[in-house]
Amino acid sequence: MDRQLKRKGILFVIIGPTGSGKSTFCGRLVNEFAKDLHYSISVTSRAPRANEVPGKSYHFVSRDEFIARRDTGDFFEWEETHGNLYGTLLSNLHNGIDCGVDLLFQIDIRGAMSLKRSFPDNTVSVFLVPPSFEALKSRLMGRGTVDPHELQRRFATAREEYAALRKLSEEPGKIDYLVLNHDLEDTYSQIRSIVVAERSRYHRMDQCSVSQFCEVNDVGA
Ligand code: ADP
Ligand code: 5GP
Fold first, then answer.
1. pTM, full prediction
2. Same domain, 48 and 6
3. Residue 175 in contact with residue 16, Cβ under 8 Å?
């Protein structure tokens, strides 16, 4: 029988301002690690963007439905950002840690810190930053997000997220990695290395599965 190391599932959380590249890299990660890294699809009251697939990017619902589901306890955490509601389904989490399945989250810094508080040993947070504000603007224009009012709102949120990031420098273990998204391929290679390395962390390993590899027989036995 094929002997394998078993471990708890990891919650990989990709954080960063709008346009920093979160969707791009989450998409690539779930493609590459399709078998054992599952995307946690959030629920939102925001309208879908042109390139978004309902049930894949998000579960899109009305504001009323979101509130009804929040009130029945469907969410592990939820936040209001840019006037829209976003929430992480509790059922997504149950399917992760204890089953040894890794989950990928693309949520804001407040949601990420909720995961860190509840699952400090299993949550890995990665904050993505664009190389400059000019690059961020031009990438957002390229994506087609051009409504100036909407952009202003998103930049205001970006300012808050950067302030929260700076503040967390005083709290070790809250933001695990900061990755600069300059070149697409270099950045992806850094993010995928984080996933690969975190999967080998000893403290998440199941000891029974470790012990099967730690056998030393007497010579001649
Ligand atoms: P987010 O999900 O954080 O809002 P996206 O992943 O949608 O950001 O990225 C915003 C835009 O920037 C997309 O059009 C994406 O293709 C582009 N982009 C992301 N990373 C890079 C990069 N390193 N170089 C050039 N364009 C990029
Ligand atoms: P967007 O509208 O650009 O898809 O997302 C806006 C912000 O909401 C992003 O920072 C995104 O990461 C965050 N977000 C998406 N889903 C969730 C969620 O379930 N919980 C929290 N707290 N934030 C979320």
1. 0.94
2. no
3. no
